[in-house]
């Protein structure tokens, strides 16, 4: 984990049985490795794992994507959207999301903004859901993950309409916390520019008081891999992420 010290580490987690790991997707294998390193690293000089390799882009497929996006073939809206998404994938613009960087960001935030006890509580949560994550992740292929990204892009488009019509604070984030959609009401609530609630510029836990952030991760660990859970009703204390404008905290 880039040599970042992990205080409050629960040594009992390191006694989990070790078995050979195989993943259908390198992306999921990397993510599972990072979760394990979260729990097992005690600091020291270690190689960084968070550089994402660039993908070569074929000029012809790139041109095809732009042409398809500008003028898709005749058909239903669903057919045209499928054509654009397929062309985007072939051009190398649509690929599995790299969650590894999200864990690096979380660890750095915990190291500089949380107490030892809070960090240990979050690590305990990760130790709890690691086996369930491994069970799910081992069967997923890169194509599965690309389809997830396709569904996520559709979700973002759907929430454009939902958020604009709700009139109440709302935002949408990835499982590692990066915010990808928010409405102007939520931006006003936490006193940040609306453009900061895009493309992972802020993480949801960066907008929460420490105890609320820990409670969030604990609730996430309880429901994330439970198919019977659909939603959670809870409360939290929000804050402005800019220490210079803490008067805007709520």
UniProtKB/TrEMBL annotation:
It is found in: Nucleus. It holds the Pfam family PAS_13. Residues 169-242 form the ERT1/acuK family PAS domain. Keywords: Metal-binding, Nucleus, Transcription, Transcription regulation. InterPro entries: PAS_13 (IPR056751), Zinc_cluster_trans_reg (IPR053045). One of its GO terms (molecular function) is RNA polymerase II transcription regulatory region sequence-specific DNA binding. GO terms for cellular component: nucleus. This is Transcription factor.
């Amino acid at each position: 984990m880039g040599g970042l010290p992990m205080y409050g580490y629960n040594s009992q987690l390191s006694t989990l049985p070790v078995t050979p790991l195989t993943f259908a997707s390198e992306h999921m294998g990397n993510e599972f490795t990072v979760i394990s390193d979260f729990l097992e690293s005690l600091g020291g000089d270690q190689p960084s794992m968070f550089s994402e390799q660039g993908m070569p882009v074929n000029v012809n497929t790139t041109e095809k994507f732009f042409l398809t996006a500008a003028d898709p073939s005749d058909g239903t809206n669903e057919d045209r959207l499928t054509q654009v998404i397929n062309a985007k994938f072939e051009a190398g613009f649509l690929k599995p999301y790299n969650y590894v960087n999200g864990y690096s960001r979380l660890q750095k935030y915990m190291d500089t903004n949380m107490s030892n006890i809070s960090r240990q509580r979050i690590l305990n949560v990760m130790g709890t859901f690691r086996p369930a994550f491994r069970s799910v992740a081992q069967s997923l292929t890169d194509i599965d993950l690309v389809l997830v990204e396709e569904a996520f892009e559709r979700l973002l488009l759907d929430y454009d309409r939902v958020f604009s019509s709700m009139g109440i604070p709302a935002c949408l984030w990835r499982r590692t916390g990066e915010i990808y959609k928010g409405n102007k009401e939520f931006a006003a609530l936490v006193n940040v520019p609306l453009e900061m609630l895009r493309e992972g510029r802020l993480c949801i836990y960066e907008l929460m008081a420490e105890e609320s952030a820990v409670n969030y991760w604990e609730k996430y660990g309880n429901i994330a891999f439970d198919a019977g859970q659909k939603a959670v009703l809870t409360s939290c204390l929000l804050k402005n992420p800019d220490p210079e404008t803490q008067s805007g905290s709520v």
